[in-house]
Hints:
The chain is mainly alpha-helical. The chain has helices spanning 35-43, 53-65, 84-88, 100-105, 107-120, 130-140, 168-173, 180-186, 195-198, 204-220, 228-236, 249-258, 293-305, 315-325, 329-333, 355-362; strands spanning 29-32, 70-74, 126-129, 224-226, 263-266, 280-281, 286-287, 312-314. Strand 6 (280-281) and strand 7 (286-287) form a beta hairpin.
Amino acid sequence: MSENGENVGERSQQRMCGSELTCPDAEPIEVRAHYLLCAVCVRGGCESPPCGKETLQPLLDAMWEYPYVALKLTADLEINRAHYFDVYEGRAENELPENFEQRAADHADRRKDLEVCRLLGIAPNTVLPAFWAYRILFERAATVDGICTSTMPGSADWPQCPHAGAGYFEKIAQASDLNPQEQVALGEPANVPGIWKMLGPRTRQQMDEVKATSAECIANADCLFIRPQHLLCILCTADKQEPLVEDNLVELRKRMEDNPDIPVTITEGCCMVCDPCNVYEPHQNICYPAHIKNQLRDLNILEKLDLAPGATLPARELYARIYERIGSLAEVCGWGDGTNTAPFWAPCGGWQGDHLERAREAGLISGGKADA
Ligand code: SF4
Ligand code: SF4
Ligand code: SF4
């Protein structure tokens, strides 16, 4: 059975399904930015975070259920808009912001919220998927130093969190993410420290079950469904002969090599490649790390191919068109010039490779050499 109890043998019956957390118009969960860290401390064993475990539990539960849940990360910027004469000289013609005194007294935690926003590179009230909030946080904050520690540890005005030296955060944040091979090697459960201690992981058993059924589906399909980006990724794995644990790139390439006339429908978004992937959420059809950037790449490729989403072509014609109209992977996977404007827009590590040129030269799937 799959994650939500569906029979994974019925892949063709699976459709997007939503809950209050996952439906497209779900409201983001509002979270004080530094609570992201306190949630990590709780996962690391802290029983008494200053905000209380009960404050964090709904956040922890939501992220476990849906790792791509939208989080609105807040920090109190508005309090400093009160004019200093109004605040300190009792002029008070203008009303002070709501709960002013309480918010003013919260200065130590307000500093933490802003420090976390700075680390994430976001303005307060930015909405980020939980996956990206933690991916970025763990890359940039290996410890709570400078956030929960105080340069004035004995100060009543600037107290240090009593858990700042306990290592709860560090135990989780300093473990690296599992790659699919490590996940397979570890077996169950795969929720070891790292991001998958915060977000519900896909288990090895789920990956294996779906791998078998989705590979069978590809072997028997009369038509293949492939996103534009993956038409190119298939070329980057052209030297692989054995199926990969985490995707169906090899199976699809071989099916098209064996039958270059098989129709391929070009989909937007996750496709037949993704079913077994450890970072794929099957019921939302979302790839956690590439949901954003691959959408733009899909459209950029479709534009270059002069095809609309949903177009269907024989595989050989599709690849002949790719070889004719796309000069290099750099054009698509490296945005042309390798610019990296944000973690969720990062170029793929392979963007400077020559897999496309080699496939063009060999006439892979297209059955003949094509000019660039
Ligand atoms: S050390 Fe920081 S993140 Fe951890 S519980 Fe204390 S305030 Fe929260
Ligand atoms: S460079 Fe990366 S994203 Fe681009 S086709 Fe190759 S594997 Fe796919
Ligand atoms: S889910 Fe993402 S990483 Fe996995 S195969 Fe699909 S696009 Fe690639």
